[in-house]
Amino acid sequence: MIHLYTNEKKLIQNAAKGDRKSQKHLFDKHAPKMLSVCRQYISPVEIAEEIMLNGFFKIFTKLDRFSHQGSFEGWVRRIMTRECIDHLRKKDVFKFKDEIDEEKIGCDEDVQEDEADLPLHLIQECIDNLPNGYKSVFVMLTIDGMKHREIARFLNISENTSKTQYRKARLMLQEQVQQIRKQHYEA
Amino acid sequence: MKLNNIKDSFENRKIEPSASAWDQIASRLDQEEKKDKKPVIYWLGAIAAALVFGFFLYPLVTNQIDGAEKQSELVIEDKKITWEKSSHQNKQVIPQDIITKENEIVLEENGNTKKSISSEKTSSRKKSNFIDSKEKLSNNKTGTNSAIATADVVLTAKDKIKNNYIPEDNSINPAIANAKTQNKAQTLTSDQEMELLLSKALENVRLNEVAGKEINTDRLLRETEWDIEADRRNRVNDIIYDQLGKLKSEAYTLIGGNK
Fold it and tell me: What single-letter DSSP state applies at residue A143?
């Protein structure tokens, strides 16, 4: 493990100096996962790839800012998430609603069970159908493991708004899963 | 599958990017590096040009200061010359004292012939000094354009005249000479008369030359300054063109090397 870590550290140091081979090595290693991260926020995959390339370009030009204190993958993932959010903001489709009807939302566990039955590509399809505000909060909280406080800071919204967006996202997902299941059984 | 499982399955998911993905990033990075390098070349060029200009402007500025100092010195010397000239003229204006002194000498001569002979000897010695100074003047006149040197020679001649010759010897002053010739008409020989006439003529020549020199020094100074200035300009222009040519060629080689 230590050997691998030192190797990656050397790779990062060389890439920061502009060494193309090291940069390519890092790209080949992290690009597939990062494209998956971008795809969680953005569809179709072609645009997600474009956003990912922008993210990698920024990473390689500002690699000297990486402090080697946390994991490199975590640092890259965070940059990719920010790049995706910026892209959604530029498209002016990033709107949040604070209204919440707690009674209509239902239980989280029920939603989990509904989501659990579906394969990954169908879940991704359901996530793609969510409004950008809901989708971002849902992906950040469920997949990236961020907390509401972090999400609020990241998206420049209040914690309550983050919670509301998440619950609304779950409600919409539940509806979508039920619809897909109906279609599946009917077929 | 629970929420954690969804998270894990998404985190482990991999989507292969297109084959041209890396090439796109590499080309963008290359362009960025070129952009970063260009300002460095421009900065280097600007610094080199500034150094070249500074290197060649510094001596020009210092020379101008020196030239101004020399000019002020020359002006002071010219003033000295004119002042001395005016003082000499003043001496010419008051011939009465000298005439009375001369009369006294003549009276003494009547009483004691030896004294008059000795005074004539001293005056002839001083005349020879004066002739030396005139020779120096005439030699320097045909020499170099150095106004300072001529001014110095004039000053030394002036000093000699002022300190030694003028106060006692009346032959320089035409009025004194006239009075002398009138008073000594009976006692002077033909050789002495010739000497007096010669000294009178030399005095006139000297005064004319001094007056002429003043005009010539100014003109010569201006002419030499113009010549020096033009020469400097030509030299600076040549050097600047050479350096700029070198810089251009270096910049082209650098840009060509980057490409």
Answer: I
Mutation target vs A (from B2, B5, B6; most A CBs, 10 A cutoff): B6
Interface check for B132 against chain A (CB to CB < 8 A): the answer is no
The pLDDT value given to residue A109: 44
Of the given ranges (A30-34, B18-22, B122-126, B192-196), which has the lowest mean pLDDT? B122-126
Pick from A41, A61, A125 the residue to mutate for testing the B interface (most B CBs within 10 Å): A61
Q: Give the number of other Cβ atoms within 10 Å of residue B49's Cβ.
A: 14
* B9, B16, B18 member nearest A120 (Cβ): B9
What are the chain B neighbours of A53 within 8 Å (beta carbons)? 17, 21, 24-25
**Domains of chain A by start residue, with CATH:** 2-90 (1.10.1740.10), 102-186 (1.10.10.10)
Question: What residue has token string 């060389």?
Answer: A14
CB atoms A53 and B10 under 8 Å? no
Burial of B126 (0-12, 13-18, 19+ CB in 10 A): buried
B109-134 pLDDT per residue, tens: 455 544 444 444 444 454 455 445 44
Tell me, yes or no, if A28 comes closer than 8 A to chain B by beta carbon: yes
**pLDDT tens track for A63-102:** 888 888 888 999 999 999 999 988 888 876 566 655 444 4
Domain boundaries, chain B: 45-250
Question: What integer best gives the mean pLDDT of chain B?
Answer: 67
The whole-angstrom separation of Cα B135 and Cα B182 is 30
Contact: A53, B3; criterion CB under 8 Å: no
- With vertex at residue B44, the alpha carbon angle to CA B40 and CA B45, rounded to the nearest 5 degrees, is 120
Residue A144 confidence class, pLDDT cut points 50, 70, 90: confident
Residues in chain B: 259
Asked whether the whole model's pTM tops 0.90, one would answer no
